[in-house]
Amino acid sequence: MRDAQVLPDGSRIRWAEVAGREPVRVYVHGLGAAAAPYFLEAVSRPELAGHRSLFVDLLGFGTSDRPTAFGYSMEEHADALATALRAADVRAAQVVAHSMGGTIAVHLAERHPELVAELVLVDANLDPIKPAPRPTIATYTEDEFVRHGWDETLARVGPHWAATMRLAGREALHRSAVHLTRADVREQLSRLPIPRAFLYPGADGEVSGAAELVASGVRLVAVPDSGHNIMIDNVEVFAREVSGLFTRS
């Protein structure tokens, strides 16, 4: 386990690291998740193995610290992640980021361009999220979520998500979810001057705004037999497709 201080109060981001060749690859998890449980099996396959790989837990999640004074906006997450990557001597990384992690990775690439050379988003959030008719993390107030929404949410979600969600700070989870509903990074993704790709479950049909994304240079890849957690649902195809998307091996 590696770690780096990312806030003045001493809060630290932690990551698991596998030694290997350059270019370095950085794996970023989604809301309520942790990097290694979601990515390690896929990255262990021959198609992706052999590179220096960092499985980073965002501030507030997994093994990283959970400061209650942190805002947990997508931009703040990106800046904290950038601090950790610099401490790890990472430059020009190939970044693979799932769901909320993809939103954060777009901000990372825009705000800290020297850190990201290639970007693969895995069913990432590009647009603001419309209010759902059922309760979600973001529909609670923070006080409600801390007092009872936490337990209600853990009871609603599936066992895999709950296994990592229970490691998150309650304030971190709620604030991140609220900020995620407001995130809008489609235009930023289109402007990035680096190789970019977007993986999505084939059963979902065409990605919203697909023509515009393709016109801006984003490669779209439909993955069969998968849901939102593509790297878990179809490990073999995920590893093969991600490996094929990188311009450097």
Automatic annotation (TrEMBL):
<dbReference type="InterPro" id="IPR029058">
    <property type="entry name" value="AB_hydrolase_fold"/>
</dbReference>
<dbReference type="InterPro" id="IPR000073">
    <property type="entry name" value="AB_hydrolase_1"/>
</dbReference>
<dbReference type="Pfam" id="PF00561">
    <property type="entry name" value="Abhydrolase_1"/>
</dbReference>
<dbReference type="InterPro" id="IPR050266">
    <property type="entry name" value="AB_hydrolase_sf"/>
</dbReference>
<dbReference type="GO" id="GO:0016020">
    <property type="term" value="C:membrane"/>
</dbReference>
<feature type="domain" description="AB hydrolase-1">
    <location>
        <begin position="26"/>
        <end position="157"/>
    </location>
</feature>
<protein>
    <submittedName>
        <fullName>Pimeloyl-ACP methyl ester carboxylesterase</fullName>
    </submittedName>
</protein>
<dbReference type="GO" id="GO:0003824">
    <property type="term" value="F:catalytic activity"/>
</dbReference>
